[in-house]
Amino acid sequence: MLKVFLVEDELVIREGLRDNIPWEQYGFKLAGEASDGEMALPLIRKIKPDVLITDIKMPFMDGLSLSEIVKEEFPKIRIIIISGYDDFEYARQAIATGVEQYLLKPITRAALRKVLLELKDKIEQEQEQKDYQIQYQDEMQEFEQFSLRRFFEKVLDGKLTVKEIYEESSALSLNLTASCYNLLLFSVYEKSEGSSVEYRERLVRKQEEVFHYFLRHPQYILFRLNVNGYGVLIKSEESQMEELTENALAHMQKICTAREARMEWYVAVGEPVARLSLLPQCFKQVNHYFAYRFMMPSMHIFSESTLKGQLTDLEGETISDVDFMQMDPEIIRDFLARGSDKEIPDFVDSYLKNIHNALKSRMFRSYVVLNIRFAVVAFLESIGAAQAEYKEEMERIMEIVHEEDGEVSGYFAGMLRTAIALRDQINSYQGGKMLKKALDYIDDHYDKDTLSLNSVAENIGMSANYLSGIFSQNMQKTFVEYVTEKRIEKAKKLLRHTDKASGEIAREVGYKDAHYFSFVFKKLQGCSPREYRAEKKH
User: CA 374, CA 401: separation in Å to the nearest integer?
Assistant: First the structure.
């Protein structure tokens, strides 16, 4: 119910309006009254009404002065001026102030009713439009994140010129102008993964706590790196970069190490660069640091400073100096479960770095090769890969191992590539089956207004976050885009081939609100459903 505040210096008129107008019947509530503008202003500031009805001529502060102050402080308040003076100059000033209506005394109940109902319809329509805009923006946010991911993939791979970076960032409404840039990569997941609703909700809550910090500050641009990882572009003046980086790391540490968190989290930070064209170089460096999360799972923050003491060159190293904990096969299996093909060179380098000199021993080199082989085979068996799918390729890779330790690097990388290719193939097959289930479910339920990413994910037994990732990756469009396109295409057919009303069509294609259906239709088609029907019939 809309709130009304009444200001009138003539007591008889004020009481008549207060007591004789059925405010609630018209959809309003009389929230306060005053005898002049000076008395009214502090009450208006406290009550914040939707509509102000004020006389124009009053002592201490007149209606026009009050209207000017109220419009300045509360531009959304609608103002109705009432006056016994049939004077064009007053009307002109009222209109210039932004007054909605100008009524002359004596005011009849019918006249005021007409004005109030018109005003109520206008306010409600504007609120609906605002609500639709918010809903539409929420739905399109997923699409924007997908576009952002594709944009940063090209930027960090060095596939765009500086001119193209600015052109594409402008299309995405991204302001990349700064004198200094840095990259932060992170991954957040639970220590004991599960598929229960409770697990998924807890993980999503913690991830959102991390995300919201970056989304609140314009110096950070958050984007998805892959299904399990995220990136943040930090942009600022050079003097602010260190503080912004430290603040980001402190926030992640606070969220992810909370007692109830039970999170596995890793974050890597690069070294600042002064040009957008140097971001691929920065990414290569930070990605190298990020690979050490598999070698050093007890560490959480990887940067030049945190790794400096860990990566000393062990020139005099012998086999007796080797830390065999850093050769645990579980490290390789963990990388194969979570790593990507692009991370292989950095992971191989980090794994072999501290045993570089020990690899000169042929016996130790053979041990390392067997350790790698056993770890890879154990992983492939754990994901159900058939031996025939990898045995021949492993034998071929084995033939390249000779005397030099550099060949161990080649063997290691080859084994990892084979295993990850099989993993992705199996995941793709399994993900494809899950995606098909999702698409089938959408096809059967897209006309239901209750359909959502969460409802589809729950129905097929998958986390909403993972479904969102594989959906956009395989369909090259987001879940919302796909569902909206299906709904609008069905609506267009119904508009062309039936005489059903727009509201009925909206319900048939999954929109319980006919106004929102029209809003989305116009956003995508450039015309209203009624205009579309008229054009096609013509």
Answer: 16
Structure confidence by residue, pLDDT tens digits, 283-332: 999 988 998 888 788 889 999 888 876 655 434 445 555 566 667 788 88
Tell me the DSSP string of 299-338.
--EESHHHHHTT----TT--GGG--GGGG-HHHHHHHHHH
Q: Which helix (H) or strand (E) holds 62?
A: none
Ranges of each domain in the chain: 2-107, 178-311, 313-427, 446-537
CA 112 centroid distance within chain: 46
- Could you give the angle at which helices 464-475 and 197-216 cross, rounded to 10 degrees? 70
Q: Measure the CA–CA gap between 536 and 497, rounded to whole angstroms.
A: 10
CATH of domain 446-537: 1.10.10.60
Q: What's the pLDDT score for residue 161?
A: 93
DSSP lists the bridge partners of residue 302 as 268
CA distance 361 to 368: 11
Over residues 329-338, mean pLDDT = 84
Rg (CA), the chain: 33
Q: What is the pLDDT of residue 319?
A: 53
Order of strands, edge to edge, in the sheet holding 101-104?
A: 28-34, 2-7, 51-55, 78-83, 101-104
CA distance 114 to 98: 19
HEC sequence for 78-141: EEEEEECCCCHHHHHHHHHHCCCEEEECCCCHHHHHHHHHHHHHHHHHHHHHHHHHHHHHHHHH
Per-residue DSSP letter, 341: G
Question: Backbone dihedral region of 106: left (phi > 0), alpha (psi from -120 to 50 degrees) or beta?
Answer: beta
How do residues 141-150 score in pLDDT, each as one tens digit?
555 566 788 8
The values of phi and psi at residue 161, to 5°, are -75, 165
Cis ω before 529 (30° cut-off from 0): no
* DSSP letter, residue 26: G
Position of tokens 């006056």? Answer: 83
Task: State the amino acid at position 405 in one-letter form.
Answer: D
CATH superfamily of 178-311: Reverse transcriptase/Diguanylate cyclase domain (3.30.70.270)
Tokens 């302001």 sit at which residue? 175
| Distance from C-alpha of 415 to C-alpha of 421, rounded to nearest angstrom | 10
According to CATH, the superfamily of the domain at 2-107 is Response regulator (3.40.50.2300)
Handedness of CA 165, 166, 168, 174 (dihedral sign): positive
* Spatial contact of 463 and 200, defined as CB atoms under 8 Å apart: yes
- In degrees rounded to 5, what are phi and psi of residue 300? -125, -25
Place of tokens 């009550």: 47
* φ, ψ at 343 (rounded to 5°): -90, -5
Cα angle 27, 33, 34; round to 5: 155
**What predicted TM-score, i.e. pTM, was given to this entire model?**
0.52
Evaluate the CA torsion angle 195, 197, 202, 206 in order and state its sign: positive
Query: Distance from CA of residue 270 to its chain's centroid?
Result: 23
